[in-house]
Amino acid sequence: MAALTMYSTPWCGYCHRLKGQLKRAGIEFTEIDIEQVPGAAELVEKINNGNQTVPTVVFADGSALTNPSLAQVAEKLVA
Prior knowledge:
CATH topology: Glutaredoxin
Radius of gyration: 12 Å
Mean pLDDT: 95
CATH class: Alpha Beta
Shape: globular
Organism: Kribbella sandramycini
InterPro entries: GlrX_actino, Glutaredoxin, Grx-like_ET, Thioredoxin-like_sf
Low-confidence stretches: none
Number of strands: 4
Keywords: Oxidoreductase
Strand order of the largest sheet: 2-1-3-4
Order of helices and strands: EHEHEEH
EC number: 1.20.4.3
CATH superfamily: Glutaredoxin
Strand content: 15-25%
Helix content: 25-40%
Protein name: Mycoredoxin
Largest sheet: 4 strands, mixed
CATH architecture: 3-Layer(aba) Sandwich
């Protein structure tokens, strides 16, 4: 099971960067394209005060980080 879910878009440079960093670090994640998956954009808006800001990362405990660094993701996973 993936440690986190990353909400993204195919054209987002920040998303591409974080995906690459997560893969290199061996951190499993599920990616959801907010432009293709019904309800995903609305979830991202709810997390980000009405904004469709990506990448938005949601952890198993329900907490979320918006446009986090790899270090922030790793820190959250060990906390």
